[in-house]
Amino acid sequence: MIPVQGYEGATVGVLGLGRSGLTAARALRAGGSDVLCWDDGEAARERAEAEGFDLHDFAKRGFEGVQALITSPGIPHLYPIPNKHIAAAYAAGVIVDNDVGLFFASLGGHDWEAFDVIPKVVAVTGSNGKSTTSALIAHILEEAGKDVQLAGNIGRGVLDIDPPTDGGIVVLELSSYQTELARALTPDVAVFTNLSPDHLDRHGGKGGYFAAKRRLFAEGGPDHAVIGVDEAEGQFLAGQLSVGAADHRVIRISSGQKLGGMGWSVFARKGFLAESRKCRQAASIDLRDIKGLPGAHNHQNACAAYAACRALGLAPRVIEAGLRTFGGLPHRSQLIAEAGGVSYVNDSKATNVDAAVKALAAFKNIRWICGGLEKEGGLDALEGATEAVKKAYVIGREAASFAMQLPCESDVCGDMATAVARAMAEADAGDVVLLAPAAASFDQYDNFELRGEDFIDCVKAGLES
Would the pTM count as exceeding 0.90? Predict the structure, then answer.
């Protein structure tokens, strides 16, 4: 655990008592704070009470004597409207922060003075690919013999990790919910994968969404910024951070376009990753036979991870060895079975259209299982992206209306079991049965993980019957 610094002897409130909130409460207490907790859910309050925390309904009882309020990422603090407890904190002039802000403000101590190599923090954000990129960076570093911890929006909560040791590296996946509010953001290496419309209601539109991501780079000034430049926002961000074309603090990455010039860049084209510095190619890796990283979107993830590890001083061949042993993450282009010449791939994490488009581009002869809770922006971006789809099998409560918007042949199935059964029955050798929903899961499942697990169970049942 990382004991929170800066609030010794102070009273600090914690709002939201899920994984990050309860961990923040423990870390605050470990740092000497008097902690008051609240969650609108009775079960969460009972868990906090069982650990000896005092409960305090901030909206009703106010903030007298409270120095700061630490809120969980899922609680709206600005758009569409501030949560009532946070609104009360604003009115009382109380500091509002989150666990990520506490982490960066509390990392480090006097023992670091004896370290030969000061610990580093790599923070990854973006719309798509940040989980795979974060896990891939951690995997490469572990394979290289580094002491690594993976935390944030993946793995453990940021304050739940062990204090990093001499030469240790912390890899954080950070969502826009986490970067938007954190008062301290000071990674050594910051990574921006890409941007596509998501969580627009929470951020007041696409501009607010991008601004939340941009804070990771603007607030603390990382030593190196790895920026995906396949969208205008990434190009803008790279330009804002760079003092000139040869500024090697900024590493531009791309999947699909060749990058060059005097700067530092890493790009993938036709399955090959290339590193360029000062107009010269520094390294090249064939990604085509790496099963854990299929498709152009995963090649972009590989570029981001490669660039981050190069910024930390790893040699190209050491990074390549780590790429080749990466097995992929569950629910992200996860190959779960091969039978009768048919492959079954679980990409339940493709919860928006952009992620689904990238998944569709990674395979041929697709039997596509899609549908769910449609997000803002509609499905227009699928136009021209379904050439490899032989047929779509649509799930979700609004499956019929979802199917009507698809630019390919579709079958309204409703539920996962029906969709998998029909796709399996119609699949030929060489086909890929792909779950890439292009929608949120909340109309039928609590989260995308449960949706992916249902797909896996249905495929296994079908193969065993």
Answer: no
